[in-house]
Amino acid sequence: MKKVILKLIILVGILGFSVPANAVPVQWATNGHWYEIQTSMTWNNAEANAQSSYGGHLVTINDAAEQSWLTAQFGIQEKFWIGFNDAAIEGTWVWSSGEAITYTNWHTGEPNNGIVPGANEDYALINAFSGLNDWNDAPGNLKFMSIVEFTVSNNVPEPAALGLLGLGLIGLGLVRRRKSV
Ligand SMILES: [Ca+2]
Ligand SMILES: [Ca+2]
Ligand SMILES: [Ca+2]
Questions:
Q1: How many domains are contained in the chain?
Q2: For residues 147 and 141, what is the distance between their CA atoms, to the nearest angstrom?
Q3: 3-state SS string over the chain?
Q4: Rounded Cα gap, residues 154 and 76, in angstroms
Q5: CB 101 within 8 A of CB 61
Q6: pLDDT tens digits, residue range 3-36?
Q7: Quick one: CA torsion of 28, 7, 19, 85, rounded to 10 degrees?
Q8: Which residue from 8, 28, 52, 57 puts its CA 20 to 30 A from 43's CA?
Q9: Residue 77 domain boundaries
């Protein structure tokens, strides 16, 4: 029992040292991108943090496959901000990453820019409706968790993976050298 506890303490120590407190980046093999959950904050703060802490953006959902993977990975219990917004021009939706719009998954009747007079909903949430992973536009000053998508894993514990890649490349070099002799 003591050994188990010790191992747990060591594990927590290692994880705590190399990744943020409440989330671990995960990689989608299909595009090689990394994804991580951010704590609850306004859309603007979430996007700013995605850029400053990860060199990325709030997630751009490019196709149904990425949407399905996000749902499988992060579930539908929690609402998450994504990068889609019409903050600059009402009704003209763009991704904060600047990527082209190749897929949308709006809930029926959304985006509605809010229904009460004077409402303004310019930022998209996924998992907005119970039991569904589809999208709703919501006011950006509300605080929700969010998903970051990034390509350079500056806080992923990868030295081991990089080491393996290095060994692989060295191995490849040796094989090539042998062949050329
Ligand atoms: Ca994407
Ligand atoms: Ca709007
Ligand atoms: Ca809405």
A1: 1
A2: 17
A3: CHHHHHHHHHHHHHHHHHCCCCCCCEECCCCCCEEEEEEEECHHHHHHHHHHHHCCEECCCCCHHHHHHHHHHHCCCCCEEEEEECCCCCCCCEECCCCCCCCCCECCCCCCCCCCCCCCCCEEEECCCCCCCCEEEECCCCCEEEEEEECCCCCCCCHHHHHHHHHHHHHHHHHHHHHHC
A4: 27
A5: no
A6: 554 454 444 444 433 334 457 899 999 999 999 9
A7: 50
A8: 28
A9: 26-150
In this structure, is residue 159 part of a structural domain?
no
Q: Are 65 and 30 in contact (CB under 8 A)?
A: yes
Say if 129 falls within a structural domain: yes
> If you measure from the C-alpha of residue 90 to the centroid of ligand 2, how many angstroms do you get, rounded to a whole number?
5
What ligand is nearest to the CA atom of residue 135?
Answer: 3
CA 177 to ligand 2 centroid distance, Å: 60
pTM reported for the whole predicted model: 0.74
* Residue at 86 is within a domain: yes
Cα of 31 from ligand 2 centre, angstroms? 30
Q: What is the CATH number of the domain that holds 67?
A: 3.10.100.10
Quick one: 67 exposed, middle or buried, by C-beta within 10 A (0-12, 13-18, 19+)? Answer: buried
For residue range 75-100, list pLDDT tens digits in order.
999 999 999 999 999 999 999 999 99
Dihedral of the alpha carbons of 79, 37, 61, 92, in degrees to the nearest 10: 60
